Amino acid sequence: MREPLLNDAIESSPSASARWSRLTDRELTWCLRFQQIVHHRGLVRLFAVVSRLGDGGFWYGLMALLLLTQGAAAAPTVGRMLLAGAVCLALYKWLKARTTRPRPCARNARIQPRVAPLDEYSFPSGHTLHAVSFTRIAVYDYPPLAWLLLPFALLVALSRVVLGLHYPSDVLAGALLGASLALLALQAPFIQV
After folding, report:
1. Distance (Å, rounded) from C-alpha 75 to C-alpha 63?
2. How many CA atoms lie within 13 A of 117 on its CB side?
């Protein structure tokens, strides 16, 4: 049985429900604009590839590469990334199950999902949550990686809206949660350098 949270609070308050509806309507307009602006087949393919890499492959590869090139010195960083990744996964799955916000492509037939969604709901963006969290942790210990990871994380976040899978607020929430969880992981005493 579903536990009440955001949707129940919104449904019980007419003004909150109206604000949520207006926000969603405005964001649907932005989602449509993104799809209209980014319609070139090559750009759509780029965002689809970035999104697919953001499923985890890129991040697991980064962790393996850090361990291979830096040896035991990278273990605390990789440990923090794994810790943050586990917490991010649990949090975003819990939030999606509780908020049950339909994806833009499910709310408006003119928004075409350009890749298959991994699950039914949109809030928050798990891809963005993980991308920001992993980037923040890796760049903290390895600042030279910023030139690669910051643009990649930004592309992951943009890809979720461009591909018709998330509202801008889903991506923003994912980024804020990811940054917060990264800061917590950086404070984890059992994996401090």
Report:
1. 9
2. 20
* Number of domains into which the chain is organized: 1
Domain with 44, as residue range(s), is 6-191
Q: Is residue 74 part of a domain?
A: yes
- Answer yes or no: is 1 within a domain: no
Structure token digits, residue 86: 């586990």
| Residue 153 backbone zone (phi > 0: left; psi -120 to 50: alpha; other: beta) | alpha
Please answer whether residues 134 and 59 qualify as being in contact, where contact means their C-beta atoms are separated by less than 8 angstroms.
yes
- Residue 157: pLDDT band by 50, 70, 90 thresholds? very high
Output the domain CATH number for residue 141.
1.10.606.20
The two structure tokens encoding residue 59: 């991040």
Token pair, residue 156, equals 């992951």
Alpha helices (H) along 38-125: 41-53, 57-70, 75-99, 104-107
The chain-wide mean pLDDT, for the chain, equals 84
Residue 152 falls within a domain, yes or no?
Answer: yes
